[in-house]
Amino acid sequence: MKETLFNGMARYVSRPILGMIPSQKLLRQMANVQSAFAPTPSGVDMTPETYGGIPGLTFRPEGDTVTRPRLLYLHGGGFTLCSPKTHAALIARLVHASGLTAFAPDYRLAPEHPFPAAFDDSEAAFDALRAGGPLAVGGDSAGGTLALHLARTRDPDRMVLLSPLADMHRVATDADYSRERLIHPAWSARLGPALGHPDPQDPRLSPVRADLSSLPPTMIHVGAGEMLEPDSHAVSKAAPNVQVQVFDDVAHVWQLNAGLSDLADASLDALGTFLSAAE
């Protein structure tokens, strides 16, 4: 029953809003309001911190005030929306499940900061954290694009991806959008202009068009039939160490419903177990 409600909210409330409202500022405010209803798991503390000159939130197991982050988590939102706060329930559940301290950078968003600002900020945060020891990366949707870029150009130990955007050059069809519960075609059409009209074949934006053979052990969770499902399978075909698990009857990045959805919690618990296996 709960999953049906969440899917209906995605398709009949969130999706039309993304299509009708062109103002990124207003969409950001609405995302902040929506995230306020997501419960944060007990046992996890959130602290504002800065790494590599990039501010963000650090999520630590309760009572731990000193452990350096071992997971860099990059939130999604099409490079234009969301923040560590909108993804707090998701990240906290992942920290709770893995036992790892995580840092979520509040990277610069477009259109105020066009491409490649988000990539530059992600690199700076990664380099600062990696200097302190082992480090895994994770991200959802466009955050998955950032994580894949880091996995391709840096050396994370493990990676978890939630419905990653891995090929901005691929043109979605009407059939793709008819199955998609959340992403609206009008919103997708605004991303290129918001980013400053970069080349969609740039390997930072379309990592599946680059060499991914050296990716670290990676686990991907994606919804069956969602518009970005082909991206997940393309990543798995391009790299030997990638596992993909497909979940039925869920919306894009359903893990944002952590603490409210059994399927969201099951996904994040499995991803957390995968991350902790590296310990």
Give an overview of the whole structure:
The chain is α/β, with parallel strands linked by helices. It has one domain: Rossmann fold (3-Layer(aba) Sandwich). It contains nine helices and eight strands. The protein has helices at 2-20, 24-35, 88-98, 117-130, 142-153, 174-179, 185-195, 229-238, 262-276; strands at 44-51, 54-61, 71-74, 102-105, 136-140, 159-162, 218-223, 242-247. The protein has an eight-stranded mixed sheet with strand order 1-2-4-3-5-6-7-8, with helices on both faces. Helix 3 packs across helix 9. The mean pLDDT is 93.
What is the gist of this entry?
This protein is α/β, with parallel strands linked by helices and 279 residues long. It contains 9 helices and 8 strands. The chain has an 8-stranded mixed sheet with strand order 1-2-4-3-5-6-7-8, sandwiched between helices.
- What's the total count of β strands? 8
What class do helices, strands and sheet pairing give? alpha/beta
**Percentage of residues assigned to helices:** 25-40%
Strand content: 15-25%
Helix count from the secondary structure assignment: 9
Which homologous superfamily in CATH is the superfamily?
A: Alpha/Beta hydrolase fold, catalytic domain
Stretches where pLDDT is under 50 for at least 5 consecutive residues are none
Please state the CA-atom Rg, rounded to the nearest Å. Answer: 17 Å
Domain module count: 1
CATH topology: Rossmann fold
Shape: globular
Gross CATH architecture: 3-Layer(aba) Sandwich
What's the arrangement of strands in the largest beta sheet? Answer: 1-2-4-3-5-6-7-8
Give the distance, in angstroms, between the N- and C-terminal Cα atoms.
37 Å
Top CATH class: Alpha Beta
The oligomeric state is single chain
Largest sheet: 8 strands, mixed
Give the rounded overall mean pLDDT.
93
* H-E order: HHEEEHEHEHEHHEHEH
